[in-house]
## 1
Amino acid sequence: MNDLFGVNLQTLFVNHDHTRLQVESPLLLVIFLFCFYALLTAVSLKRGSKDTPFSIPQTDQMKGIAILMILVGHLFGHTLEPYPDLNHLRHLGSVGVTLFLMLSGYGLSQSLKRKGIQGFFFQRITRIYIPVLLVMVPGVLLTHILLAPDSSMIKDLARIVVNLPAVDRNMWFVQFIFFWYCLIFITFRLKMSDNGKVAVLFLAALAMLTIPRLSPSMKINAFSFPLGCWMGFHREAVAALFQRFVEKNLMLPVLVIAAGIFLSPITFELSDRLMEPGFRGVGLLVLLCGIGVFGHAFLQKARIRFSRELIAVLFVLAVIGPYLIWVFHEALAGRENVAGWTFGNLASLILALAVVLIPTLGLRFGWYSRFLVYSGRISYEMFLIHGMFMYSFDFILFRGPLEMTFPVYFACMCLLSSGIRRLGNRLTAGLVSP
């Protein structure tokens, strides 16, 4: 079962959940990774036409930086032996996800304001879940062949829908983004004002912090999507503010970026120290009320008919339903420190906003990085696939010094992500077109 064309697959891959990699000088590795990314960014710089903050090329560059941060954060968090002096690097992955969620909220609010909610669920779910299927089905097959040959293939494939994080730990993000899609759909269905929509989103984020045993990854990013929506609803004012900030005084944005980066270890250390029990959760009531509001709004405002939109809605509920049921059972079972989680959100958002200034600062000189734009365009697909071949089925990192193997790994991930994006776009276009 472990042989393919006479090759023993066990010798091709290493699982770092069981065996971590060791490096002689982790600090030198950090310096190398920074120089590697900086070099790719520098050699791909190009002068562009007059641009504005938070345009598509700008947000692509921000997503590109976000996925690079996630790769470094997960490399130090899941693949390498823990190094206490560099413990704060594990937070880079969380900050990268913060950027993703913030930009997702920004883009979605802009799209819904322009196009409305007609066909919202079907279009969004196909664009998100087709790449998931393209990545996770091969992942399940590899797991079945190499790690759990005695498991049920049918059950493992079913988990791609009903228990996605059990397939890959990073897939909590898909459940999380589905939750926000449902909530923002409600606010648009109820025809709330922009400020009302944002208020509902922030209240939901605050309620998340009180739910015992809710995924820490969700709690530490609770306010990211609502903030992005607020920025999207006030795009002109936000863009003008960033434009003035980078043009008024060059040293000021540079100092803000430097402060956000170099003070982040202190802010994350403080947020970690504040994570102590002390606040009883009220998540059960909040979730029940939320589902009740969604059900009422959908039944009152929409004509129920069997359509691909309804199928998409039911599919979303099937994906997040088991997790919500689990939360119902756990919602009154523990205590949480809301202040600690709130400070953790602020620490991530401060660094994320400092990172946002980096491509925005390029507007002052009329430069943009083609490497960051490219990385941003394939960032979702790379987010889905990078963990599979970084720590679950490492095929290259363990074969030599990371200074040599990581660039090869990164190049392979870029090629795979580009292929998945092209195939996913073709399949999505075939399904979404009337």
Note: The chain has 19 helices and four strands.
## 2
Amino acid sequence: MAHRSTRALAAILAFVAPLTAQQTWIVDRAAGPDHDFTSLTAAIAAASSGDTIVMRSGSYVEGVIDVAIGVSIIGTGQVTLELNGGLAPTPGILVHDLGPQESFTIRNVDLGGLFAIPELRADRCDGTVAVHNASGLLGQLGVPEAMSLQFEDCAQVHVQGVFIRDNGVLSFNNSRGTVSSSVLEGDLGSAFALNDSDVTIDSCTITSGFGLFTLSAPLLVNGGTARISRSAVTVNDPNAMISAIDTAGSGTVFLDPTTTLTPGAGFPPVGTSLTVIQGELPTLFVNSGATTLDLSLQASVGQLFVTLLSFQSSVLPLPWGDLWVNADAHIALHVGSLIQRVDSLQLQTVGLPPGLTAVVQTVLFDGDFSLSNGTAVIFP
């Protein structure tokens, strides 16, 4: 049975207190009461690292958005960025050169464009990059469309609750991260591509193809490692001559028993050039609501565990893996032992400032140490 800290909320609030002095900027396209700017571009130009930008509901026509500092962008209501005047170049949002103690986060903001796929790209980021609750949407028309997310040379990426469709793609290049609770639907090509990256995939639906047109596997692993739990990877056309997971070279795929793979008829679930390891994977899913923080840990029965949270994170190599929480400044949210594969916890989080970003990770012990994936929390 899990033992839970009754002082967790008090500890969080005490830990957060010195962080609340950062500036919060209000962006309102309609220039409503108490707004600071009518565009995101202007708000970013004024912001300093650690600030929060709250965007009120509306469709914002923006140019190319260049971000070289750690900021949190939080949408309230329905917020859509129509990039480059609606033309949506590649990339529409470029996040780059973040330091190891900086974080860029964006939550509840959809991306739109008329003549090209809107894209958020992060390059050369040693800090945290988190994208939560986003999809492609033509803001003025309200029509779903494609969207792409690309991460290049990023140390710690967190993607949660995104919807990528049509010819959009989620790609990791020489990066590490977690993708959870997302729907990735490819049309002609793959919806998800890993290149020399280490990524945990949890509670996702990944598909490719429509009708007779299926040209690529839903998930490509070209070097590096994919760890997949509680997910479904499906080739939509049962007659397609394609595996559910494939590669143009080599790589490693860890498969938890909770994952299902559906290839084309007669094809192996995983391409033969990939190394496949099957077994129980420790995975952590965390979701923050308006007043609660929900945690779901899946690991082997009988394991002792402690789930840690920190507000400034760095990737620290340890003998049993990479610790993503701050080893010198963290709190224990959840301590115990697993009597079943999944253990859940809900904490009340009233009073936390919007845009606050934390990293949560579980350390497990069953004769040896191991680590779950790290996952980011963006408080609304």
Note: The helical segments are 8-16, 40-46.
## 3
Amino acid sequence: MTDQPKDPDTGPEEPFDPLSAMFGASDPAQLGAAFQRLGQLLSYEGGPVNWDLAQEVARQVVTSGGDRSVLAKESAQVADAVRLAELWLDPVTTLPAGATQAVAWSRAEWVEATLPAWQELIAPMADRVVAAMGEAMPGQLPQMAGPLLGVFRRLGGAMFGGQVGQAVGTLAAEVVSSTDIGLPIGPAERAALLPDNVAAFGEGLGIPDDQVRLFLALREAAYHRLFRHVPWLRARLFHAIEAYASGIKVDTSRIEEALGQIDPANPEAISEALTGGMFEPEQTPDQAAALSRLETLLALAEGWVDEVTAAAAGPHLPSTVALRETVRRRRAAGGPAEATFATLVGLELRPRRLREAATLWRQLAEQRDIEGRDAVWEHPDLMPAAEDLDDPSGYLNRTEIDLAVPELTDPDQAQDQAGGTGDQSGGTGDQSEDDDGSPEGRSTPGL
């Protein structure tokens, strides 16, 4: 599917902000259209957040920023780049290919393909913020107009949905692939690059376009291998975000103050309230801990992709070092859309400790080869913790002992180690079976 470019002379089909249009309209026809639009928003029955509006606003942001259909030539270039990337990745990781299809997306197609994942990611946080908005009705309104509470919450859901749409639409102009933010937000097994954004990424680098495209295809293919063949990873990432959301405490007095300052005669004030962080939650100590766990896992995933991509690209792409550093700085700094999401839900999806994580994966490969490095992904209990990024050698030494333990559970090997007698090992062969000495019982499954 491709998104046909819109005639710039026609303008947007609907106003971004129907409230501003309603209060600022002088034309009766425009005012009537605004009231009709407001009625549509207040009749939304899809949940606390108006995701229909979020989708609409995101597409309008994309259109206003410039979008076009993907050319057949570009689709072929992406398919060829991903195909070659898979061949280069095979020798540097034990994880098999994870994508069965390679596509080129327009920005609008990225919005459509990723919006279901955004609903899953943002919904837990949005539910709490919108509920708090209903509690923040100014003055005596809750007691005087109980039946209107649902309407007020729908209004909050529409405002929050519009804010999400603005962020998703802005992000569509920045991302270069379906996994660019380090989360599996696109369809499974479908590698995707955005040609316009890939071209923008390469501007000013002085690197041939085909090298830039191939390097980013390597990253995309590596992420798909990780998310497809580490089945617990997606669930653990999303659960960490949900755990963060469960601790959200919204300052309703701040929302009430913001609502009270909105001047209905000033459309700009309403628009500013929509995008000015009036829904921004406050972070609690529990959330800070949950955020630390999330950032560590994001860093470990990004660090593995960073290391594997560099290993695959190094022998083939002369600009590997420059491209790797460009991606690292870009991921560490984040972009305008990431800042918008941080304001929206107090959550930054950044691998802050990318370099430390990449160093740890490199040392693992040096010490245990790529098989031992990739085996760490077999179970979450084997994964490094935040403190291990500070002391990779400590993690390597500790886990080397742990990973050696299951080898002694083989009866013949245990007998050899014991010198042919059970007493030297502190027990008998029967004892090792009774106390669940299997690998599964030692929190090192599959190793």
Note: Strands lie at 101-104, 190-193.
## 4
Amino acid sequence: MMNISAQIETHIEPALLSLCKQLGQVASERNETLYLIGGVVRDALLGVESEDIDMVLDGDIESFYTDPNVKSLAAVISKSQFKTVKLQIGDTTMDIANARTEFYETPGSLPAISRATLLEDINRRDFTINSLAMSLSPDNFGLLIDKLGGAKDLENKILRGLYETTFQDDSTRIIRAAIYKARFEFSIDQITLSWIQRDANFIKSISESRLNQEITRVLAEPYPERVLEQLANWGITELLPTPFPYTENIERLFRALRNDPIAKDNLQNYYRLGLVVHSKKGTESNVGTKQLNEIENHTVLDTLELLSDFREHKAVESLGVMKPSQLSNYFDDRNTDSLVLVRCFIGDSQASRLIGTYLDIYSKVTPTLNGSEVINLGIPSGPKVGEILSALRARKIDGIITSRSDEENYVRSQI
């Protein structure tokens, strides 16, 4: 039997691993067994970072999480209808689920569950690579439980479903198949692929909110365009609540966003808004976890309008001959997100460079004087103060004003 304690010990930070061991000790003292399961075991064997720590209890979860010894180690912050509890330890959360079986009354429905053994729990999972478990019992800590050949599939870089109706029961597994294929650069077992192709239409049985959650997970991937392209090849992107075609424009856009100095700090949101713009559906679109809010609607419409303008070469040419202050004035009413999206959509062009000049230079120019100082120099309080501040900014952008004394002299000239 394979022991992977060495891999786990280098994969999970020491304090968290110590807590897992202590929880395993408590389970053992209750004549139960606690296991790490799924992604954390898979990722430890692959040597890649894992975001989640999931555990499964071969025992009774209700009495386990209320056990004083468990409560002394971690706080229970939530529990679900699926016999899963979420524990909070400092800034970290982890899920512990009861080993269970699942029954899907209709395709896409949430399953009915029953308490089960670890082996039964393993058999209801999505892919062999996610069926791996590791014992946290002090007697055999690190023992790998691999009943379905998941370790071999990891070694051979193969994604394999567990049973024929897996994508009918929960067709979001098709989206996860595309994620894992792209993330790990795995191939898909031919039988599994035939199930995906046969059952793609079952994606329509999933609620819009669940599908949006899955697309949000897609957009959190390092290269989401690879996932979207795979989903498009299976016909999935045309079956979503807000269908969109996959084209090479998405790949170019996402690559540009990753390289953009502003977008790279909020990539997931820019990806989402970019897909809405790409779909040409504006405010009717819902790509993500929520309806677009007012600001996002404005961003999408602004982006579409600017893209339309920039398709006309004359519009770009007219911007190119404007004074810097006039160019700044043209872009001042646009929000930053729309300008970032536009320059990433259009790539390396004169329009893109003009937007970059505005964002990098002109948008950051402000007068040295403030409103109170303008008033103190003799301008009456009122609208004229704002007009003068705007004029100061314009002249500063154009290089006419270069110092505080220049600003003061201009204000005096307006008295």
Note: The CA atoms of residues 401 and 407 lie 7 Å apart.
